[in-house]
Design a protein that fits this description.
CATH superfamily of the largest domain: Single-stranded right-handed beta-helix, Pectin lyase-like
CATH class of the largest domain: Mainly Beta
Radius of gyration: 22 Å
Number of helices: 4
Number of domains: 2
CATH architecture of the largest domain: 3 Solenoid
Helix content: 10-25%
CATH topology of the largest domain: Pectate Lyase C-like
Number of strands: 31
Strand content: over 45%
Structural class: mainly beta
Shape: elongated
Length: about 425
């Protein structure tokens, strides 16, 4: 069923691409007053162009918001709101074409809204295609310190919880309730926090992106998704200070293919079940990905005290180059800020397959299945060969409350029934 869905989505992409140049109506932000010198605030011009596009009732073609090359556009936190008018919404893909450069403010005098949940947001825009060869630069190291200074006094006067809430702000690019979304070709750098957020979306195709942030930049996830279904991420390079891809609660039918991750914290399911929350994730499939110099590679992380499940998950044909935790299930996850307490309840982790892992681990412990008393059920290892980065050392596996099988797996996993080795 999922293959049929993605085949249909690809056909829609082909149809929309064919339509470009045939009846396409272009809304160039420069025509609406954008300067593009990197100094003057172009937010209002972008909004005016978007409102013209979104309110345009065209009978044929694809309305396109164009950001021309050779210019640098400064934007404050901005929301592009849908739904948009169109006679044939189901076939007319509204496009957001980026060829130039978009930057965030980089001084405390310029940044006017640190309370925003994102820097650039699209809400309720169906059939949105955002593509091009341009650059989206969050100027993260500067922006994060700006907002930290603004809210530091608030934290001192009131609570760490409030500071924590504000520290999740400033995701660079966020899509909420944007069904049948396409995102491709762009370069995303130095977000103040997460680079790309996908929330409450159904039908997403992300491809050929280049996402980069320093290895020591905190919480700079590459792609972070929640409550979304039928998401396909492929053919991209992601190097950040946090998860290359994070799959959070409410996600299902996620396919991640041909991603070069590193540095970063790997491709992670979770964290799930925080503050006793009920979370579910299922049908997540990661294939043909590489992890170079990552803190983790294939990771599932859940908090104690939560409920729900993470199931039907697979990591297949994985290449490891000096990964610190190549395979890890952590049901005792704690971010170090919270007062993490022991609990007798946990999410159920089941039906997880690891297949075709080859490469090196920085630590001798190459596999860690640290499951709660409820246990991790039907964990399958097949054709795993993880060796130490140090030729003089031997890798090993740790596991607790885990059941399943393994075929031709090295290092040996003591909790699993062995069929070959």
């Amino acid at each position: 069923m999922q293959d049929v869905y993605f085949s249909f989505l690809i056909l829609c992409i082909a149809a929309s691409s064919f339509g470009i140049g045939h009846g396409q109506k272009v809304f160039n932000v420069v025509d609406f007053g954008a300067i593009g010198d990197g100094q003057i605030d172009d937010t209002n011009a972008f909004l005016s162009a978007w409102q013209a596009l979104c309110g345009d009732d065209v009978a044929q073609g694809t309305p396109s918001l164009q950001i021309p090359e050779g210019k640098t556009f400064l934007l404050q936190p901005v929301k592009f709101q849908g739904p948009c008018k169109s006679v044939f919404v189901h076939v007319q893909v509204k496009t957001f074409q980026v060829q130039g450069k978009i930057i965030a403010p980089n001084t405390i005098e310029e940044w006017n809204n640190c309370q925003a949940d994102y820097w650039i947001g699209f809400v309720g825009v169906a059939n949105l295609n955002m593509y091009g060869s341009g650059l989206i630069d969050g100027q993260g190291s500067k922006a994060e310190h700006i907002c930290f200074r603004i809210f530091y006094t608030v934290e001192v006067s009131f609570s760490v919880k409030l500071l924590k809430k504000q520290s999740r702000t400033l995701q660079a690019l966020n899509f909420e309730k944007c069904d049948d979304l396409q995102l491709s070709g762009l370069t995303h750098v130095d977000s103040p926090k997460g680079h790309i957020g996908i929330t409450d979306c159904n039908g997403v195709l992300i491809s050929n992106l280049n996402i980069a942030a320093p290895e020591n930049s905190p919480n700079t996830d590459g792609i972070d998704m929640a409550r979304s279904t039928n998401v396909h991420i492929q053919d991209s390079m992601i190097a950040t200070g946090d998860d290359c891809v994070a799959i959070n609660g409410g996600c299902s039918y996620i396919n991640i293919t041909n991603i070069a991750c590193g540095p970063g914290h790997g491709i992670s399911v979770g964290s799930l079940g925080k503050d006793g929350q009920y979370d579910t994730v299922e049908e997540v499939h990661v294939r043909n990905c590489s992890f170079t110099g990552t803190q983790n590679a294939a990771r599932i992380k859940t908090w104690q005290g939560g409920s729900g499940y993470a199931r039907k998950i697979s990591y297949e044909q994985i290449t490891l180059v000096a990964s610190k935790n190549p395979i890890i299930i952590d049901q005792y996850y704690c971010d170090g800020v919270n007062n993490c307490r022991n609990s007798s309840t946990a999410l159920q982790v089941s039906d997880v397959t690891y297949s075709g892992f080859q490469g090196t681990s920085v630590d001798e412990e190459a596999i860690r299945l640290d499951c709660s008393d409820r246990g991790c059920i039907n964990i399958v290892m097949d054709n795993i060969n993880i060796t130490s980065l140090d030729p003089g050392k031997t890798t090993y596996a740790y596991c607790e409350h885990t059941s399943g099988t393994s075929w031709f797996t090295a290092p040996y996993v003591p909790c699993l029934s062995v069929s070959g080795y």
